[in-house]
Amino acid sequence: MIVIKKGIEIYRIMKKYQTKIIIILCFLFVSINVSGQGFENFFRSRNIIDSNRYNINIKSTNFFKNNEFFGDFIAGYTLPGYGIKPKFVFLPYNNIKLKAGFYALKYFGTKKFSEIKPVFSIEYSPSKNIKIIFGEIYATTNHELPDQVFDYENFLTNNIENGMQILLDNKMLKADFWVNWKQFIIQNSTYPEIVEGGVSSKLILFKQTEQQNLSLELSGIACHTGGQIDTSDVPVETLANIISGIKYNNSVKKKLLKNICLSVNYIIAADLSPEKRLHYSNGYGILSGIELNSDSYDFKIMYWTARNFFSKSGNPIFQSISHRYADYYEDKRSLIVGNFFYQKKIYKEFKIGLGCDMFYDTRNKIFEYSFGFYMNADFNFF
User: Fold this and answer.
1) How many domains does the chain have?
2) What does pTM read for this prediction?
């Protein structure tokens, strides 16, 4: 009976919003000859050691993302603009890489750049499976955290992370350990210190063939606001999320379907502050879903259910604490989420992407969505 009721509810949702759904799907299927594997993969850095000792690298992302949100947790908004990051890259040795340049973010309709900052990093590889980075780290979508705890949109709005990072990658284990120093203080600073850090790891538990594997995913992220030498009145706060999950991956390699992925994640939210100021001190969420992709599309459908959930850096639409209205909360959240993404590689260094996210709040009967168009360039000279 529960399955029948859910089926009837989904049918009513689709009937009510059929015009919007048809428009979005048509918008997505215009590019049928494309290749892609999701928003986060589209923007993930190509971690490649170039054989040239010297080169100039220019990364550029042009974006138009429209968020049509109508609920009580986040207001709708649009992000039109571009980010550009030119760098000089020097390899004094085969396992050491130095990078120096700057990053600039500009939103259309503004007279000035929203952000201009220098970037520098040194990357050391003691072995082919280990990388140690100081300075600008491989950030945002490269951490491979779920949207619930680390909003994918950070790639567009908060692209640069500075700190320390260790990357491990071998046949059975892939891990990312990092610290991002978001705000540094000195003696008598009038603002607090803000430090964010985390770990993202995937361990292969079972590998029947090259096409099928079962993996355990353990990750966590925490953000601390405080410090002992500042004069700020901002209260000390430490918020954390811990993620544990199982993922089954099957590479079927058919013409229209290359890969099937089933996953379930349990996410804990905890306020570790000495004085609790949030409405909730702890909570949890469960994310389960299926992902299908091929050379021509990426499609995910997920179910999110949560109680008293919060996250410092996560997408506000999944949380129990409103980012739109002060003192508005919902203990229980329940959303059906659909993600579509396409990309077309024009050249090796240049690709375009087209994506859409749909959210249906089953408790409040609200349908929300976002869509975007992106151009991503990553050129090396010399």
Assistant:
1) 1
2) 0.86
